[in-house]
Amino acid sequence: MLAIRPSSPLERPDFFGVATGIDLRQPLDAASLAAIEAGMDRYAVLHFPEQDISDGQQLAFGRCFGELELATGDIAQGAERRLAEPHLNDISNLGKHGEVLARDDRRRLFGLGNMLWHSDSSFKATPAKYSILSARVLTSRGGNTEFADMRAAWDTLDAATQTEIRDLVAEHSQLYSRGSLGFDDWTEAERERWRPVPQRLVRRHPVTGRLSLYLASHAGAIRGMPVPEARMLLRDLTEHATQRERVHVHRGSRHDLVMWDNRVTMHRARAYPASEVRELRRTTVADVAPTLAQAA
Predict the structure, then answer these.
(1) Which of 117, 120, 112 is CA-nearest to residue 89?
(2) What is residue 83's three-state secondary structure?
(3) Residue 267 is part of a domain; what is its CATH number?
(4) Verdict on whether the full-model pTM lies above 0.90
């Protein structure tokens, strides 16, 4: 039977839950799916240990929660993709033929952006709802994933700042996030694909009603604000949101499956040995509408 408990009941009783007693390789009944969604509404991140699932099983699980995104955020597209399934994001350091990418390979350098704090697909007009990450091969050390609770980040802002930022609209693009690392090796098609899109800076969860900050390294401008001032504000808010008391560090194991709500979290990968194989696969459930079309 499915059971969900907080990973850190004393420090963070309502952030990052551990879900056991369920086999995600099997079709799930309505009660189990409802319990998972309720767990997501409470904890924002759920860890399902020891889920040795196939690509097809991962896709089927994701589709229980809505329409899956196409993996258009990967820099390798079309014939360059390693994974044939277009709804699977390739979270690895591997080339098309399974080789570890060279340190100066543009695909690897682009992928380093995953080590910045971000929310998946905030650079898309309709961003992500849930992300579902399956660990297939992990390195001997490093490679942790860290999660920040953006509900707690909002709750702990002072009232004056909350009033100041409540109705602001930021612009998000992978051109901003990768550019902050000095990556500027873009084709014209990539520049067009990742033109900045608007997103609310503060969002309301449609079920719980809680407010949260909506930030990402993809955010590089705020409408109506000079760019240097906007980036300083975004940096300050990110530093506030990622204080250690609001962050859970997930030290993953092979066959872990981790699911998170991008509407109320940020996350980042941590460094790992560049010469070792690291392979994870992500399916991403799209949100229902652009953030500006959702209730404020």
Answers:
(1) 120
(2) coil
(3) 3.60.130.10
(4) yes
